[in-house]
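Most newcomers find our protein records easier to grasp once they have seen one. Sequence and backbone structure share a record, each on its own labelled line. To make this concrete, we reproduce a full record directly below:
***
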Amino acid sequence: MAKIYVLDTNVLLHDPMALHAFKEHHIVVPMTVLEELDTIKDRRDKDVSREARIAINAIDNILTDASPKKIQQGVEIPDSNINGPLGTLAVFPDQLINHDNKAPYLDGSSQQANDNRIINVALHLQANQPDNFVCLVTKDINMRLKAKGSGLENVEDYRKDQVIDDIQFMSKGYESIDGDFWARVEKVKTLREGNETIHLIDADILPKAYPQMFVCDDNGFVGYIRAMDDEHIHLQDLKEGRLMSQSLWGIEPRNLEQAMAFFLIQQDDVDMTVMTGPAGSGKTLIALAYGLQAIMEEKRYDKLIVARSTPPIAEDIGFLPGTEEEKMAPWLAAFEDNLEVLHGHDESPFGSIEYVKERANIQFKSLNFMRGRSFNNAYIIIDECQGLTQFQLKSIITRVGVNSKIVVLGNLAQIDNKYITPLTSGLTYLVEKSKYFEHAGVMHVNGIERSRLAAFAEENL
């Protein structure tokens, strides 16, 4: 039985290199998909138009030397399966499909005409090739429902970028041990490195460990994995009281998760910190407080760059008069709120905030305008990243230059991109892919510290 996958446009926009993800199987791209990609490539939305152009180039690289007949039958995809038969790519002329008795037919003149034409391709192939497995792959939930309701037996979401099966398994940056952690340790070697105590324990004790992960137990022990190899874990002994007494730009942690985030973000050898957690957990405040301290007191960086992902920013910041910072101001009000928290008790709060913004060289940027640049000697905060794809996040992180640190923030409960779920979010992908990198750290800040009402809303509404 051959496996035939009909791709929707949003799959190629989500992952422009999706053509190489189906191994030895047959991929069908309807003509309507090519038409949609052609329309999208000229949009002002730089992210989506760029991905459309990449997808078009990927298709062209495979089909460029093939004859029209071969293109309709299927052209081999290079490197789609190195150890076996290669997969094939075909373009289906769906404009030639007519209503017949073999397959159900969706009207192509409705508001959802393009979706209907793509579904008709899958229905047509299913009816005319009953011995083969025909599957429509789309990120659009409603399109999957329509396809199933029309009689298509196999409809799937694009899952190549799903690094975990359930969001509850996403790494938190720490592991909580019931009872006493040391009760499970049979052999330990303790060393002193300067003022720090390091325990060498067997790697088998923490089989899911990764660098920069914290370990805590019910007796108040907190450990931080400094290094690890196949045999040993180098566990730095941290006292809970020491963690809770930390201070960044005048604020102190209110719970252990915040305290661990305080410690992690200050590590010199951690170039990227990814903080997840619900609204009101203090992610943005911690990131901003360390940035101000690192720039104004410790002189580690020259500037603080703040960017935030919102649907309007992803499309365009507009052509009305004003600087980039002035146009971004409504979407970055959260940072103004946090600056007020940090300086609200000053004798002249407004003067303090303006002074800090100037001295710390705080720059508000649109994510679109970060592409193609390199940021050296900079502390970078990217907020609200839950709605970005892995492709978009990668393009932002690759902008980080020499002597720079980036902090990526997001709340997976507030995704506003209709094609992204917590499992397929670029933030989830980044957490799982970067946790083994020795210069990256992950922390899930779970405690709601905004107000008792905010805590109630987050948990019950």
User: Anything to note?
Assistant: The first strand starts at residue 3 and ends at 7.
